[in-house]
UniProtKB/TrEMBL annotation:
Protein name per Swiss-Prot or TrEMBL: PspC domain-containing protein
Species assigned in the record: Streptomyces purpureus
Transmembrane segment boundaries: 33-56
Taxon lineage: Bacteria, Bacillati, Actinomycetota, Actinomycetes, Kitasatosporales
InterPro entries: Phageshock_PspC_N, PspC
CC terms in the record's Gene Ontology section: plasma membrane
UniProt entry keywords in alphabetical sequence: Cell membrane, Membrane, Transmembrane, Transmembrane helix
Residue ranges constituting the Phage shock protein PspC N-terminal domain according to the UniProt record: 4-59
Location in or out of the cell: Cell membrane
Record's bilayer topology term: Single-pass membrane protein
Length: 66
């Protein structure tokens, strides 16, 4: 499994769905559809998305390391 970081490429808003898709080996589109479908159910999905957006580190590029 890949590390849980928000990728620089393939993100729509914050990169949370792209990060989760990369972690679980699925496509980002599938993860986005799952998230949107879960928003129809009661619960704190939107707050969880915001928390992950704030807590997950952004992916570093090779040039940023030096």
């Amino acid at each position: 499994m890949a590390a849980l970081v928000r990728p620089r490429e393939g993100r729509m808003i914050g990169g949370v769905c792209a990060a989760l898709a990369r972690r679980f080996g699925t496509s980002a589109t599938t993860m986005r559809v799952i998230f949107l479908a879960s928003c129809l159910l009661p619960g704190p999905q939107f707050l969880l998305y915001l928390a992950l957006w704030l807590l997950l580190p952004s992916e570093k590029t090779a040039s940023a390391a030096w």
